[in-house]
Structure to design on (328 residues):
């Protein structure tokens, strides 16, 4: 028997008053009970109880050890109960990782809905552009964007699909004119986004004429869509933004869509976690929340884009059309 089980036997023998009574309550044998206590005494190198045919009596060491045993066994029982409940009732700390932009625009709204339903769960959310190591124990679940996922031991759930669009400030387009065809982008200042989801300097445009691959370069490269949008609002050039990172600026007029008949780099949104066995209740319910919320959030943004006339070319003043000279 292991030490923990021997401790349980020792405490039960004392409570029952004899080895025989303890054996009956544990569905075991008197010999097994006696061996368990003897193993404890051998391990501790001290006698825990004095035995006779009529009675058992704890030694001073046995009395002290019994108190410790009861505390330890109570803690173990409580830990097992909490761990078991973790698979049934969402509670405790949920450690999440998300790519920065999708986290800010989609994960945070879903998180609000989740917390309203599960107030016993507290959230630790890390936003970054790196792919997390979910096997190191630092995160329970991750939300990432990718065209596809490599084979791995991670469990993945497809939450939805979205896309990128080209934008620039109205001032930039008035000064430089707007490109009318994807090939013209090579003559513009193109602001690039560094992300694990797709190549930095290669834009894959999908439009009426199919898919076109354009190599771009420009004065600014950054690793978050929000910082890129700041540069674009400042009139530095044309950039590619995920729809969810562009929609608010399009609605406010701070940015205008470029090549509106084209989309770029379609992305799937995935939830990832390490194992399918004994999935913690807070992880399970969080993924369920994401699967319910994410398609609604994506559909909302696509509806907003359509309402803004997303399929209509950007209307550029005549002076801008005439002054199609570029800054390169």
């Amino acid at each position: 028997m292991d030490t923990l089980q021997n401790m349980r036997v020792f405490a039960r023998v004392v409570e029952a008053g004899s080895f025989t009574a303890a054996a009956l309550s544990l569905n075991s044998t008197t010999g097994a009970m006696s061996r368990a206590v003897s193993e404890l005494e051998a391990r501790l190198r001290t006698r825990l109880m004095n035995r006779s045919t009529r009675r058992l009596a704890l030694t001073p060491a046995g009395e002290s050890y019994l108190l410790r045993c009861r505390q330890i066994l109570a803690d173990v029982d409580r830990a097992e109960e909490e761990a078991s409940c973790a698979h049934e009732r969402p509670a405790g700390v949920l450690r999440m990782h998300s790519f920065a932009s999708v986290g800010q625009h989609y994960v945070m709204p879903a998180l609000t809905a989740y917390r309203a339903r599960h107030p016993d769960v507290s959230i630790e959310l890390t936003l970054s552009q790196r792919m997390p190591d979910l096997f190191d124990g630092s995160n329970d679940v991750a939300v990432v964007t990718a065209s596809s996922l490599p084979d791995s031991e991670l469990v993945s759930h497809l939450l939805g699909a979205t896309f990128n669009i080209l934008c620039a400030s109205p001032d930039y387009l008035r000064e430089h004119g707007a490109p009318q065809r994807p090939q013209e982008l090579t003559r513009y200042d193109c602001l690039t986004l560094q992300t694990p989801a797709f190549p930095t300097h290669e834009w894959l445009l999908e439009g009426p004429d199919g898919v076109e691959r354009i190599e771009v370069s420009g004065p600014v490269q950054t690793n978050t869509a929000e910082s890129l949008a700041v540069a674009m609002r400042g009139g530095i050039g044309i950039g590619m933004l995920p729809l969810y990172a562009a929609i608010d600026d399009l609605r406010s007029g701070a940015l205008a869509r470029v090549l509106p008949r084209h989309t770029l780099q379609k992305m799937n949104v995935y939830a990832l976690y390490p194992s399918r066995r004994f999935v913690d209740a807070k992880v399970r319910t969080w993924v369920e929340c994401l699967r319910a919320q994410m398609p609604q959030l994506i559909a909302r943004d696509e509806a907003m884009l359509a309402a803004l006339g997303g399929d209509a070319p950007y209307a550029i003043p005549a002076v801008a059309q005439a002054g199609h000279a570029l800054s390169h």
